[in-house]
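Please predict the structure of the following assembly.
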Amino acid sequence: MRADLSPIWISLATSLTATAITFVVGIAAAAWRERRSGPMFALVDGIFLLPLVLPPTVVGFLLLLLLGRNGPFGRILLKLGTTIVFSWPATVIAAAVVSFPLMYVTARAALSQVDPELMNAARTLGASEWRSFHRVALPLAAPGILAGTILSFARAFGEFGATLTLAGDIPGRTETIPLVIYFAVESNEMSRAIFWSLIDVGISLALLFALYYWTHVQSSASARVGPAG
Amino acid sequence: MSLEVHIEKRLQSYPLAVEFAAGAKPLAILGPSGAGKTMTLRCIAGLVEPDRGRIILNDRVLFDSEKKINVPSRERRIGLLFQNYALFSHMTVSENIAFGLDRVAPNERAGKVRRQLDALHLAGLESRLPRELSGGEQQRVALARALAIEPDALLLDEPLSALDTHLRSQVEHQLLSTLSAFNGSSLVVTHNIEEAYRLGTEMLVLTKGRIAAFGPKEDVFRRPPTLDVARLTGCKNFSRASVISDGMIETVDWRCRLRVSQPITRSVAHAGIRAHQIDFLESNDGRANDENTFPCWLMEASETPFRITLYLKLHSAPQPGEQPQLQAEVFKEKWQRFKDRPFPWHVRLDPDAVFLLPD
């Protein structure tokens, strides 16, 4: 059995980076969308939610078309002297794109629960849109946003199809735990598959336990926080 | 100091079109729900953009549709007390009050918060969260937060409606002293007649998006310009009427001639008198045949703790199926003095109390 533990670090680095990106972009998209209404924006919602509905291989393939050598973004990258497919950033992009809808949906639900009158109050008190958002809306939506972050991380950590399509399986570079397990099973290395499966279960449980524990401590320490009445 | 408002805004129900100016005296805006009161405040505060018009606060143009000026809410320096107070539930009392002071130097900020805490009797509650406060305290925090930014105008949206009845008079008292200490224009929106009268010096009556009356509150109550305003300001008794000669009218529904002291300048369609201004003769001392005095019979009575409302039929004993013609309101002490007297009682409709309404 190979003692190469690099899939652990690749998986963690990928899902953490992807979650960080999803966190910022997802909240920004939710905040942007929350202030708009109209039938056209239903289409926007559809596009944002697409990665959740499409098979991950399709998401990976579409990303490959966009980012590959002949794709619109791929060509720009090529001009800048770089490529992104079949590299570590590709694993991050794949994980971020498939986990984005979860962050977007939960953040929007959380933000829409914040009384718009509170934002109006902040405005009359001289607050800029940014200040009223990050000092009022965001803290009040925090529990929902935290839930969205956990879901996104879980989704990114378990990502397989889009990663394989866009980033390939390059040991030491793009080989995450799910890929290791898949190819171990493929080549009938059962003990290796079991070993990595157990590691995956262990890491997932530990992280979810830590997150929920932290959330629980947070919410009981700040049980006083939250919408009044 | 002055606040000039001219707003036109299309709403779902009817267009809002108001034009008025407020000076240093508190202006009460009275009207039924949905008359456009809150919308008016929101336009002034910059939370809603009017379709047309102009808003000028102390020579500062906040909105001008022709010149395409629309100063954002955050730069208007207008304190708005929201109907539900809109306190930040995740911040303490002090943090709420300090929210608008982020551009004030930190050492000055503490002093400003302190002053508001003291002025509104919130000392000791600094580190409480809004949900840990009573309704009256929440209102004072919201008021302190609005006043902390030292606004040029103060707008109060139904300031007492969220409070229990027993708290109201106390909070109202506090509100009155805050309003009188406030150095700027202040507007109080309410649908409660008595609140409007006590909190405002000037009064504006709004119905269906339009101004129905505007002026010193005493004038609006004593001589309401229209039937709507008379009703909205709590008047219960109306009769169709026509002019006989200067100072004399003939009432159709009350079936009598009345002397009135209001000069007759326009065509008269109705006469009105407020329920508490109907006077009862306590003894038959020969005044029963005086001017504006009529025999009456009691048809129905309804009691509140201190007053009684009497539904009366004038001139003759009521027949089955007849409606009362007048509704009078008297203190129970007075009622005790005449309630056992035999019918007919006698009421006097004071010529000063009767007001006339045009078509």
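The radius of gyration of chain B is 25 Å. The longest strand of chain B covers residues 293-303.
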